[in-house]
Amino acid sequence: MPHPSSISPPSAPSDQSAPSDRSDPSAPSNTTSTAPPSPLRQRHPRHPFPGAPATGDSLSPRQMRKARLHHEAFAAALAARLSLFLRADFSLALAGLQLLPFQPLTESWPDPAHLTLFKTEPWRGVSILQIPIPLALAFADRLMGGPGLPGPAHQELGAVENALLEQVAQLFAAEWCSHAAPLQDLKPVLLGHETSARFLQTAPPQAPMLVVSFQASLGDCRDQIQLAFPFAALEPWLRRLAAEMEPAPAPEPPSARSCAWNPCFDEVPVTVTGAWVGLDVPARQVLHLKVGDVLPLDPAAARQIELRLGGRPKFHGRPGLVAGHWAVELTEVVKH
């Protein structure tokens, strides 16, 4: 039922704009004039709504990309919030974002539909939340304790259903304003609701509207929800959103500096020792060791020597002979 405080009644057409049914009887009967079809009634092949997008205003590629990212994050946050509110699994995903004139947009909406009018103060203009009747009935059924079953698309909503859907609309508007808060503090104010877009006169017919479409799912009901914002009110915020700097990538950790050698240590002697690791001897046997005893070594351990500098293990090496002298070839660094 329309709310007079928020929606203006449709104005009567003026005599000047109404087509005349009078014809000149003296005019020849074989001469006829056919008016070209209105472009607002034609479907644009690239858009899911009738009519071409608004041409007087447009979004830059950067504005479009930032707006998409913003509304993807908004959809994820709102889906989680509504799932808790409904105590049921509810999903919401961004389906599209574009500019459309007000009249073709409203003509594309089903009749009846649940249309919530709201403002985002201090912005001027009225925004619209459009929820199809089957999904609106699923919301109401779930809030009344049911499983969230959708109803027929032509069913009228009663006072109880409208009151329950007002809570859902309040969550939509509040979450959207919350996501816009980093750039501007906004306050959502619900103005009323309508069931037919024919009664809406919240904007001139050719006023551009930013239309954000979401694919919603509640139980077995899947349908599309749309948010429509007056582009004139939203444009300054979109410019600030596009001008927002991208988060800078995390800087790479600085590489470790090589320590400069202090020449004062050039002549300091360092004890270098080599040892075989892995030979375990019982304490009782150690007490009886004497010259001439033979200790068996693991062949693998015998081929690897641990080289120690100042008593600390630094390298592993392989023993061998170089020019008749015992030597150790360094094979790897010991990792502590």
Supply the number of structural domains.
2
Mean pLDDT: 79
**What CATH architecture of the largest domain do you see?**
3-Layer(aba) Sandwich
Secondary-structure element pattern, one letter each: HEHEEHHEEEHEHHEEE
Instruction: Calculate the terminal CA-CA distance, rounded to whole Å.
Output: 78 Å
Low-confidence stretches: 1-56
Biggest sheet overview? 6 strands, antiparallel
Widest sheet: strand ordering: 1-5-6-3-2-4
CATH class of the largest domain: Alpha Beta
CATH-defined superfamily of the largest domain: CheC-like
Question: Layout of helices and strands, plus pairs?
Answer:
Elements: H1 61-86, E1 90-101, H2 102-108, E2 114-121, E3 127-131, H3 133-143, H4 159-180, E4 187-194, E5 208-218, E6 221-230, H5 231-243, E7 272-275, H6 283-287, H7 299-302, E8 305-309, E9 312-322, E10 325-333
Antiparallel strand pairs: 1-5, 2-3, 2-4, 3-6, 5-6, 7-8, 8-9, 9-10
Helix pairs in contact: 1-4, 1-5, 3-4
Task: Describe the overall structure.
- There is one protein chain.
- This protein is an alpha+beta fold.
- The protein has two domains: 195 residues, Chemotaxis protein chec (3-Layer(aba) Sandwich), CATH 3.40.1550; 54 residues, no CATH class.
- The strands form two sheets. It has a six-stranded antiparallel β-sheet. The protein has a four-stranded antiparallel β-sheet with strand order 7-8-9-10, with no helix packed on it.
- The protein is elongated, with a radius of gyration of 39 Å.
- The N terminus is likely disordered.
